[in-house]
Amino acid sequence: MQGKARHDRRILDASVFCRDLVEDGTVCAFLADHRDELFKEADFADLFPSGRGRPSIPAALVCSVMVLQALEGLSDRDAARALKTRIDWKVACGLALDDAGFDFTVLTYWRTRLRRSERPQRIFEAIRSVVEATGVLAGKHRRALGSTILDDAVATQDTVTQLISAIRRVRVAVPEAALVTLSSANDQGTKPVIEWSDTLARNALITSLVHDADAVLCAAQRSPAAEIAAEAIGLLALVAGQDVEPGETPGSWKIAKKVAKDRLISTVDVEARHGHKSTAVRKDGFKTHIVTEPDTGIITGVKVTPANHPDGRSVSLLWRPNQTAWKSSPTLPMALA
After folding, report:
1. Is 263 within a domain?
2. Neighbouring-strand partners of residue 144
3. Coil, helix or strand for 58?
4. Between the CA of residue 117 and those of 38, 89, 189, what are the distances in Å?
5. What is the pLDDT of residue 133?
6. What DSSP character marks residue 144?
7. Closest to 187 (Cα-Cα) out of 160, 209, 168, 163
8. What is the chain's Cα-based Rg?
9. What gap in Å lies between CA 55 and CA 65, rounded to an integer?
């Protein structure tokens, strides 16, 4: 069942003793003053439809911690530790000085419920509405822009693994494709055993896999199920062409010497891409672009893109020199998503 926030003053209420220590204009001060306006219990009632069971942590408390966590880029464990030990967080969240907070797993639990709800971005929406109503950013036109690459949990796949995986996916989705006799690919998703240091053996395998892919594609495109399996078919067509080039003899194929533009790096997560933090450091996954108001630290715009997405293109969408950028991107900070 949904937990209710306490509105009675406690003996060691952090706001009573330490509110003056929290600088005005900061996010902690903003939450201390507007927390109850931001996160009304009625706005989160759908997350806890049952009136039975142990009460949840109050919405205003959890949501305030999520905002501070996103602002400072903390892990769940570090956010729970900050709530227990930092005075500014206790003031922002309406806790007593001796309050131990809650276990870090509560944050994961709440994010899961928010993500599965019909309004997964309601925290960001609440902050935006209060910022616009209070004018806390009125006259503040400076913005700090930054981006960082987020590692994807999916392992990068080589060309052979991608081809076999994509072929298998189409054969599962399209009955006619499953009837095609394969030369090298298999329905177990395993890589053939060859002498990988032998160029001729590698090229022979690539040629065989490309021919398998072509045969599966032809059968799938003629199938009545082609429209339903369009995504899997399109993925196979992309994988079959992005990393290979014609070999020395007609009908043969080999690994291309150049990396394809916007190369797909995994058939498991098709949106992840290669990215570079520097010329020497490469990361695989996504890139988050954040715009903040430097005096208050309030995040005014967030956009998540594949790791190879140019910063300039994202900045042009987020940056609004004469107005706040809340309306430019409804995307939640990653810590809240």
Report:
1. no
2. 292
3. coil
4. 18, 27, 35
5. 65
6. E
7. 168
8. 26
9. 18
Together in a domain, 289 and 320: yes
Domain that holds residue 184: 159-255
pLDDT value, residue 9:
63
Residue 294 inside a domain? The answer is: yes
Q: Identify the DSSP state of 148.
A: E
Query: What's at 261, amino acid-wise?
Result: K
Q: Say what percent of the chain tops pLDDT 90.
A: 41
What is the model's pLDDT at position 330?
A: 35
Q: Choose one of 102, 136, 170: the last residue of a domain.
A: 136
Whether the full predicted model's pTM is greater than 0.70, yes or no, is no
Same domain, 47 and 123: yes
Determine what percent of the chain is predicted with pLDDT higher than 70.
90
- DSSP of 204-272, one letter per residue? HHHHHHHHHHHHHHHHHHTSTTTTTTHHHHHHHHHHHHHSEEE-SSTT-EEE-SSPPTT----SSSTT-
Region of poorest pLDDT, from 1-5, 11-15, 195-199, 333-337: 333-337
Query: How far is 242 from 264, CA to CA, in rounded Å?
Result: 8
Indicate whether 187 and 147 sit together in one domain. Answer: no
**320 domain residue, yes or no:** yes
Q: Based on the domain organization, do 125 and 148 belong to the same domain?
A: no
Shared-domain flag, residues 144 and 174: no
Q: Residue 279 corresponds to which tokens in the numbers above?
A: 């010329």
The count of structural domains within the chain is 3
Q: Note whether 278 and 146 are same-domain residues.
A: yes
Report pLDDT for 218: 96
Q: How far apart are CA 42 and CA 220, in angstroms?
A: 50
pLDDT at 8 > cutoff 70 = no
* 131 and 19 share one domain: yes
Whether 301 maps to a domain, the answer reads: yes
152 pLDDT exceeds 60?
yes
146/279 same-domain check: yes
